[in-house]
Amino acid sequence: MITCDLAGTRSLVTGAASGIGLATATLFARCGSRVALNDLPGNPHLAREVARLRDSGLDVIAAPGDVGDESDCEAMISDAIDELGGLDHLVNNAGTPATSIPVPPRDLDAIDEDMWLKVLSVNLVGPYRCARAASESLRQGGGAIVNTCSVAGLTGVGSSTAYAASKAGLINLTQALAKALAPEVRVNAVAPGVVDSPWECRWSEEGNQERLARVPLNRAGEPDDFAESILFLAHASYITGHTLVVDGGMTA
Ligand SMILES: NC(=O)c1ccc[n+]([C@@H]2O[C@H](COP(=O)([O-])OP(=O)(O)OC[C@H]3O[C@@H](n4cnc5c(N)ncnc54)[C@H](O)[C@@H]3O)[C@@H](O)[C@H]2O)c1
């Protein structure tokens, strides 16, 4: 696990009550950053994880809010920045598949308007909302944004066509924001492959084995594997607009 000195910095991680977001918030806090953990207001894991991290001596706060809702998202960012006293790192990690089982690409009728709008609003517009609301504060300190995309955004293959398109959009948005917020703020992304997390879309046993068979490193990525890549991109001073594939070689 890589570490670096983030003492004196302030960070906000969305979708931080579990999986990659929780591992990232924990790693940033262990490195000395004061961290706000965002997740859905109704998610009981958020308060529980924040309490657990505080009990272990880490400087963290809860920042509940739905990144898929414009006013809720803006209020969440504004309140978190006020409470943290500024912002140096924004990790746009919250995401949804909006389905509990994968939707085959050929099944065009299985993705209705509601699913399209939910997936795009949370996975693509959400990071834009957060970046826009945090941009002034990030600019002041010369901060960084890291977005959690997916190899689905590169290959078109994922839990659904809508999900893959939302992540492709986020890869593109990463480049656009890198140019829009330069030179003060760097904007990068990670693209995970197979992840061992409580993600709400579950593949069949056969589907999982088929996916893992395409991973040369022969295992799913642990949340910590992605957290350290996010930490690297938050810290790497001459990288911007880049999407780092973190997939154990799956797309090589
Ligand atoms: N699990 C995978 O297979 C996989 C693969 C590639 C990329 N990703 C991406 O990684 C990121 C993290 O996923 P994970 O695997 O850690 O799953 P996870 O389910 O453990 O974490 C996702 C978190 O996001 C939160 N969230 C969902 N919608 C939200 C909203 N509107 N506002 C705020 N929080 C919200 C959830 O409550 C959850 O705590 C997501 O962006 C996902 O698209 C996951």
Annotation keywords:
binds nicotinamide-adenine-dinucleotide; single chain; Rossmann fold; globular; 7-stranded parallel sheet; alpha/beta; 252 residues
Tell me the layout of helices and strands:
Elements: E1 10-13, H1 19-30, E2 34-37, H2 44-55, E3 60-62, H3 70-84, E4 89-92, H4 113-141, E5 144-148, H5 152-155, H6 161-181, E6 186-192, H7 205-212, H8 223-235, E7 243-246
Parallel strand pairs: 1-2, 1-4, 2-3, 4-5, 5-6, 6-7
Sketch the major β-sheet. Answer: 7 strands, parallel
Helical content band: 40-55%
CATH level-four homologous superfamily name: NAD(P)-binding Rossmann-like Domain
Provide the residue-averaged pLDDT: 97
Report what the structure shows.
The protein is an alpha/beta fold and 252 residues long. It has one domain: Rossmann fold (3-Layer(aba) Sandwich), CATH 3.40.50.720. The protein is built from 8 helices and 7 strands. The chain has helices spanning 19-30, 44-55, 70-84, 113-141, 152-155, 161-181, 205-212, 223-235; strands at 10-13, 34-37, 60-62, 89-92, 144-148, 186-192, 243-246. A 7-stranded parallel sheet has the order 3-2-1-4-5-6-7, with helices on both faces. The model has no long low-confidence stretch (mean pLDDT 97). It binds nicotinamide-adenine-dinucleotide (NAD). Nicotinamide-adenine-dinucleotide binds at residues 14-15, 17-21, 38-40, 43, 66-68, 93-96, 122, 148, 150, 192, 195, 197-200.
